[in-house]
Amino acid sequence: MNNYTSINDIDNINSWIADAKQIKANPLKDVRLGLNKTIGLLFFNSSLRTRLSTQKAALNLGMNPIVMNVSGDAWGIEFGDGTIMNGNTAEHIKEAAAVVSQYCDIIAVRAFPTLIDKAKDESELVLNAFKKYASVPIVNMESATGHPLQGLTDAITISEHSKKTRPKVVLSWAPHIKALPHAVANSFVQAMHKMDVEFVIANPIGYNLNKDITSNTPIIHNQTEAFKNADFVYAKNWSSYDDYGQILNTDPYWMITKEKLNTAKFMHCLPVRRNVVVEDAVLDSDSSIVIQQANNRTYAAQLVLKKILETL
Ligand code: CP
Q1: By alpha-carbon position, which residue is closest to atom 1 of ligand 1?
Q2: Is the distance from the beta carbon of residue 50 to the nearest atom of ligand 1 less than 6 Å?
C-alpha cells in the first residue's frame, strides 16, 4: 500500500480487522519492521488521540516519529500554483513536501476543512498537495472530508464488541456549540458500508451528509425511531452539508441520553462535550465504549503503517 488517505484504500475490511486484532494481541511482534525508518506527523490542527496513538503505533513498529505543529511552528505554507508570494506565506508546498520527504519515509498529515469554501474543502487541497509533491507515502490523520484512521478504528471496535453476526448500527447527529467538519461521519459511513451491519443515520432535517457518500443508507429524522433495536449508537456532530458549514439546529433533544440509548453501546470518536453531545449517565456507564474505541486508534494506525512499511 502506497498511501492511506481514505477508507476506500481498505481492500477487505474483515481481513484488516482480523489483522488489527492480531496486532493488538501482540503489539511488539513487528518491532524491527520499522527500524531506521522515520515518520513525520504534521499537524495543521489540534489533536490528542491521533497524535499520541500514531506515535505509539510507530514506536511499536520500531520507527522514529517526529512531530510538528505546522500551523504554529513552521513557516506559513502556500498551496496556490503560480501565486506571487508577497503575503503571509513564506514557503511553497512544492519545497516543503519535497524537503520533508528527505527526512521521512512516511508523512502523515492532519488538515481540517475551512467549512466556508465547499469546493476547496472537497478538493482536499492540503492532503492532495502532499500526495502530489512528496516522494514518500502519505497517511491521512484527518483531512477536510475524511478521517480514515478513525473509521478503521470504529470498524475494529464494533467487530470486537458485537454479540450478533449483523448488528444494528446507528450514526446519530448530536448537538454542538461549534460548526464541526463532516470527516469523521463520512469515514464512519464508508466503513459501515464495507461491513455486514444494519446501518441507519439519524439526523435533523437540513443535516444530511453528502449523498455521494451516504448513498442508499436510510436517513431517519426521528432519533427515537432510529434507535429502536440498536446495538451501537455512534454520536457525532457535524455542520450542515447542504447549507455548507452552517449551524441550523442546537435542539438539546438530540443529545444522547441513557433512556434513549436503552441497551445499545455508545461510541464517539472523542473529544466529546459532556451534557451537550451526550449526558454523563451514558459516558459514566458500562454502555460507553469510547475509551476502548480510543485504545484501538493505536492498532488501526499500526496496521496502516505496517502495510506501508512492507512495501518500502
Ligand atoms: N478522534 C480524534 O481524532 O481525536 P483527536 O482529534 O484528539 O486526534
Answers
A1: 269
A2: yes
176 C-beta closer than 6 A to ligand 1: no
- Residue 222, Cα to own-chain centre: how many angstroms? 26
In this structure, what DSSP letter does residue 248 have? -
DSSP H stretches of helix in 118-179 = 118-122, 125-133, 148-161
Pick the closest to residue 238 from 214, 261, 204 (CA basis): 204
Mean pLDDT of the 254-276 span: 98
Q: Which DSSP symbol is given to 288?
A: B
Q: Which helix (H) or strand (E) holds 41?
A: strand 38-43
For residue 45, give the C-alpha cell.
490542527
pLDDT for position 1: 80
- Grid coordinates given for 133: 509533491
pTM: predicted TM-score of the whole model, two decimal places: 0.98
Residue 290 reports pLDDT greater than 90: yes
SS3 296: helix
Name the residue among 231, 293, 229, 287 with its Cα closest to residue 257: 287
Q: Distance between CA 153 and CA 71 in Å, rounded?
A: 26
| Model confidence pLDDT, tens digit, residues 66-112 | 999 999 899 999 999 999 999 999 999 999 999 999 999 999 999 99
The helix or strand, by DSSP H or E, that contains position 100, with its residue range, turns out to be helix 93-103
Decide: 180 in ligand 1 pocket, CB within 6 A: no
Out of 47, 54, 291, give the residue to mutate to test ligand 1, the one with the largest number of ligand atoms within 8 Å of its CB: 47
CA end-to-end span of the chain: 9
3 state DSSP class of 64 = strand
* Per-residue pLDDT at 213: 98
The proportion of the chain whose per-residue pLDDT surpasses 90, expressed as a percent, equals 99
